[in-house]
Design goal:
54% of the residues lie in helices and 0% in strands. It contains 7 helices and no strands. It is globular and about 50 Å long. Keywords: Metal-binding, Nucleus, Transcription, Transcription regulation, Zinc, Zinc-finger.
Length: 138
């Protein structure tokens, strides 16, 4: 079965039946996708950085109204923070999203206060202010 057709059918069923499903926390997918990227010893650190990045996305309202796996794809670019050169194409292949989606999320992140931090600051500093991100800025 084509997984995209299955997902489309599922969404149609949910809408037709007017179901209210609980929101899925995107961080639940991070470790699974990180393992699929075959990062070796760096898998845990990449997953931890990706979860921290996800928290920053959430704090800046970047996760609202977006599908969890698409947010995970952007967060898994945290592999680059650990000198593991995974390309956008490799992440797209594992997470099964479009490369433009990853690029858009990263462009949005660059416009937040967290996006201008150095790597050392990103891992140690927790910004208190949030940017009320809206899609109008895109």
């Amino acid at each position: 079965v084509n997984e995209f057709e299955l997902g489309h059918t599922y969404l149609q069923l949910v809408q037709t039946l007017n179901l209210r499903l609980p929101l899925v926390d995107p961080s639940h997918y991070i470790s699974r996708f990180a393992a699929l990227l075959e990062l070796g010893d760096e898998t845990h650190q990449v997953a931890m950085d990706a979860v921290r990045l996800m928290q920053r996305f959430d704090r800046d309202w970047m996760t609202k109204g977006r599908r969890p796996t698409r947010i995970c794809g952007a967060c898994l670019l945290a592999a680059r923070m650990n000198n593991s050169r995974r390309s956008v194409a490799e992440i797209v292949q594992v997470v099964k999203i479009a490369d433009t989606t990853v690029k858009k999320r990263m462009d949005e992140f660059r416009r937040t206060p967290s996006g201008v931090l150095t790597l050392a600051d990103f891992r140690t500093v927790w910004l208190k202010d949030e940017k009320n991100f809206t899609g109008d800025d895109v």
